[in-house]
Amino acid sequence: MHKLGRGHRDKVQQFMTITGASEKIALQALKASDWHLEGAFDVFYSQPQIKSYTDTRHLEELYNRYKDPYTDMILADGITLLCNDLQVDPQDIVMLVVSWHMKASTMCEYSKQEFFIGLQALGIDSLEKFRERISFMRSELKDEQKFREIYNFAFGWAKEKGQKSLALDTAIGMWQLLFAEKQWPLVDHWCQFLQARHNKAISRDTWSQLLEFARTVDPALSNYDAEGAWPYLIDEFVEYLNENGIIQNSQLTDWSQKR
Amino acid sequence: MNRKIIGLEEGLGYMQDGITKIERILEGRPEPPFNSEEYMKLYTTIYNMCLQTPPDDHTQQLYDKYRQAIQGYITSTVLPSIRAKHDEFMLKELVKRWANHKVMLRWLSHLFYYLDRHLIACRSLPSLKEVGLLYFRDLVYRDVHVKVRDAVITLIDKEREGEQVDRALLKNVLDFFVEIGMGQMNRYEEDFEAHMLQDTGAYYSRKASNWILEDSCPDYMLKSEECLKKERDRVGHYLHSSSETKLSERAQHELLVTHVNQLLDKEHSGCRVLLRDDKVEDLSRMYRLYSKIPLGLKLVADIFKQHITAEGIALVQQAEDAASSKASNAAAGVQEQVLIRKIIELHDKYVEYVTDCFENHALFHKALEEAFEVVCNETVAGSSSAELLTTFCDNVLKKSGSEKLSDEAIEETLEKVVKLLAYISDKDLFAEFYRKRLARRLLFDRSANDDRERSILTKLKQQRGGQFTSKMEGMVTDLTLARENQANFEDYLRSNSAARPGIDLTVTVLTTGFWPSYKSSDLNLPAEMVKCVEVFKGFYETKTKHRKLTWIYSLGTCHISGKFEQKTIELIVSTYQAAVLLLFNASDRLSYSEIMAQLNLTHDDLVRLLHSLSCAKYQILSKEPNTKTISQSDYFKFNSKFTDKLRRIKIPLPPVDERKQVVDDVGKQRRYAIDAAIVRVMKSRKVLGYQQLVSECVEQLSRMFKPDIKAIKKQIEDLITREYLERDKENANMFKYLA
């Protein structure tokens, strides 16, 4: 670090903060990209994650800290404790990312296997390392491909075991969370629409297609294809927007300013 | 043998003599024709000269001489004589000169035959005849063809204006144009035909512009027809046959295409008016004129379609107005009857038009179809066309129907009804309503004639396929079987002394799948009837095990003796009504709630029942208070004072409105049908885009109904949830079938 000029030092710091990688990795990546930060990110993300050795004994200790006294699983209390330890709000979306890494089957509980899989994948075997990885996990949400995976994962994770569809309230909560990350101007209208007109559970198809809709159709609906294969609910949503004057002449009128 | 060598001068001289002689003959001068000696002399001279070897070989010079002579003759005599004249006279002169020329060339070719053969063989020169023709073309034709053409066109125009012209002359001139092309039609086509066509165009353009303003549509068409006929005749008389198509097209264009819109849309005599006033002849003419002009014909067909649609809609509107202005139900029903009749008549009328005026042309069939598809899908006073049509059938088929017709007329009517069905898009709705009505007719013995019922089912089967009618046929068969079954039941009763229902009982067993669905109610049967049910069950179990009987009391009829003070009257009532009345054998006076408790019926049903027995025409029960409506606080008593002049009366129970149930049932059926269609399509295609999937489903389903695209979309999503289909990962508009 001492041999680096100030500019380079700053870049290394930035890199480490954003990716959560170690200094050594940061240097490697930056050198490889001739000290261009963006290039360095590309290099870093395209390389397989360097799995640092995780000590299984430490993992056991960690697991035991959180596991429920009566069942061999981490339940709600354990998760709350974990969040506290991590200094992260239990409602924080990063916990969703954690669950995704664990391939958790349902929210508010982790099996031992899921816990182990997740932490090993992230190269975590201590709380310290766990805390360090938090910013990395946040960054994963910025990746388009990963976000889609996490988003689609969220459906299976958030729904009741044995149900095929996701309860509306839960869905709305998840959407609010997810689209706070990935800014979608119509999310509030969507939620209002569902509560006013739909009042039923959300199918997986509708869930996944909504993301595509948010990604590809512009908020003023100028490139929305009414003859397309969008789920029926989304067609209704567009009608709702038009009927209520929210979209007029392909302009999104901002109601928040109209009161 | 020594042949004398003929010198050049001599030879030329001979030649010239021969040519001159012919010229003189043709000019009409006094000149004796060739005698055989002269002829032979000349012929032989030329012959010998051709055989002469160099230095006496003068064939080339002879040839040249010939050429010069022809040229000279043309230049000095032929051309000036033509030029000297004008117009028709010029044409006559031309024709004469041309004829002469051809004769001359023929004679000369014969005379100088060997020259012809020799030269052409040796040196590939144009034949004498060809040379002669070429000269005529280059010297005469080139010079005069413009004037000739103009003269011809002037004559043609004169003839068009009605004057007599010399047709033979024209034919000859035009033959000349063809012949002068020497094997090609280009002289005729470029120098004459093209200009003639242009002139024709201009001529008819002028005429049409005037006529279109002054004449009515029929008159204009008459004139056009005349003109086109005359032009065709013209070809026969003097134009070359190859001109026919082009000429017709040009004339047609100016007369019929340029002003087509003005013509068809003429305010007081245009196509719409002709249709309105049933001017069949004029319309036939219109068809004939436009049958070769696709654009025009389409316009006529469109007007035809609009006209029929408007008339149909007007009929619907009439019925709608009449229905809404009259308060009572009965009158409204009549209007709807009348409407169907009128639509049938409308259809008959315009089918005739299509066959007669429009010669069965596909465009007009289509126009008719499309018009009726609009008309036959209108709603009248809340009833869909499917329902209206079933009501109509009901009236034709039932005993008390308003349609009193002969058997033949009935057959015809049923045929036409089935034809109309083809236009209705919600055929499944028709089938469902039909089944409901059929059920009523069959079960309440209201059908006029079994044969008629079967007849219409046969016709429906022919038109719509076996699947359409299978349930209905099942229903009719059920009744036949039921009669047999009843006979067996009666035998059973006779031979089984233990089996005593106590009442005369007739049971009709219906096969569940065929009949419309009926709610079986939890009616508490009167004791007398309970026994009947038991006895019948006993009998039925001797016939078949493994079948479950569900009793539909709402469809039953009961004959009850009412022992009134004045006299006993037999009452024909429904089973439900009977159940109510029998309660009064045990109690004098009952409240609404008591009746309710004893019978275990719904409020809706009970109100209807009590109303029919206490507030309608026949008041078998008296009600406290004596109001016209039933309320839950009412009390009822047996009305012993009731009487009627008849000994047997029927107490009608107005039927529940089935419409909502039918629509709901059909809605459910459609969901299944859509589901099945999607699966069928995807199973065979494996992978398919959304739009295509939707359109194939629509096509498959259109036999029975017009599916709502949204409904199809919903079913697709349902199938995705049920894991029959999935979206393609790359392209969300593609679906894959999951085995």
Produce the secondary structure layout:
The complex is a heterodimer of chains A (259) and B (739).
Chain A: H1 6-19, H2 23-32, H3 37-46, H4 56-66, E1 73-74, H5 76-86, H6 93-102, E2 110-111, H7 112-122, H8 127-140, H9 144-158, H10 168-181, H11 187-198, H12 204-216, H13 232-243, E3 247-248, E4 251-252
Antiparallel strand pairs in A: 1-2, 3-4
Helix pairs in contact in A: 1-2, 2-3, 6-7, 6-8, 6-9, 9-10, 9-12, 10-11, 11-13
Chain B: H1 8-27, H2 36-51, H3 59-83, H4 87-111, H5 113-123, H6 128-160, H7 167-179, H8 186-214, H9 217-237, H10 243-257, H11 260-264, H12 271-276, H13 280-290, H14 294-325, H15 329-356, H16 362-375, H17 385-397, H18 407-421, H19 427-443, H20 450-464, H21 466-495, H22 527-543, E1 557-563, E2 568-574, H23 575-586, E3 589-591, H24 592-599, H25 603-614, E4 621-624, E5 635-638, E6 648-650, H26 659-685, E7 687-689, H27 690-701, H28 709-721, E8 725-727, E9 734-737
Parallel strand pairs in B: 2-6
Antiparallel strand pairs in B: 1-2, 3-5, 4-5, 7-9, 8-9
Helix pairs in contact in B: 1-2, 1-3, 1-4, 2-5, 3-4, 3-6, 4-6, 4-7, 6-8, 8-10, 9-10, 9-13, 14-15, 14-16, 15-16, 15-17, 17-18, 17-19, 18-20, 19-21, 19-26, 20-21, 26-27, 26-28
GO molecular function (chain B): ubiquitin protein ligase binding
Protein name (chain B): Cullin-1
Domain Cullin family profile (chain B): 384-614
